[in-house]
Predict the structure.
Amino acid sequence: MATGRAAPKLARTSNAKPKRKAQPKATAKPPGKPKPAAKPRPKANAREQLARLAQALPEPRCELDHANAWQLLIATILSAQSTDARVNMVTPELFRRYPAPAALGAAELPEVERLIHSTGFFRNKAKAIVATSRAIAERHGGEVPRSLEALVELQGVARKTANVVLGTAYRLATGIVVDTHAGRVARRLGITREDDPAKVERDLCAIVPEAEWVDTGHRLVLHGRYVCRAQQPDCGCCPVQELCPSAEHVALGNVAERGERERARIAAARPAI
Ligand code: SF4
């Protein structure tokens, strides 16, 4: 018979099963030896890769339109965060209006800004090309200086721009031009592991003879722009395919045929080359 009182709770006896402790989940793979760091690629292989590129592009050219060192300097400053094709659209009118350093150095900023607007960052770029042109006219007799030290003193001119101008306009090898394309190709080929353009340049200069610095820079830029693209590199068409640790597809045709295809692609994009 029910009394209406709640029955007292029973205390746990020593026979009660203890709760099992949660076990750590088994990992998919037993811990093995730590992976050894990848060995740096032998220099001979990098030289072979670059020799293949040289075979494919024996006479690489800068894609910025220019008639002299000053025009190339101005075009290179304008190409920052833009494309060569875009810069080539604005420079004909810019150089028609201001045909020499003294003229651009004395130009009104709003007018220069209007002319170069589509290249982006137009206010800073207008200031830089006007100030640099004025400095060339007043301090260098209207001639672009032929030394890296003097060039990097000019407004808007850093090492990469100076290398482009000295190498392309004067054939002076002061370094290897490393832009976003050249850096990407050098990393994919395993020539460098660096992201910093100055360190990529250092690694390239260590394996490329000085006489080849200028052309090597242009080749890496063109190869990265037209074949070893950031998205969907065309490894099947690449003359370096068999020597590249990043190659994704089988090569189509022999090395000479792939080199021919690369040249044709560049020429089609840019008939002057
Ligand atoms: S094989 Fe592919 S990843 Fe390697 S350099 Fe050629 S295009 Fe670039």
Q: What stands out?
A: Residues 185, 188-189, 227-228, 233-235, 238, 240-241, 244, 246-247 surround iron/sulfur cluster (CB under 6 Å). Residues 1-19, 21-30 have pLDDT under 50 and may be disordered. The radius of gyration is 30 Å.
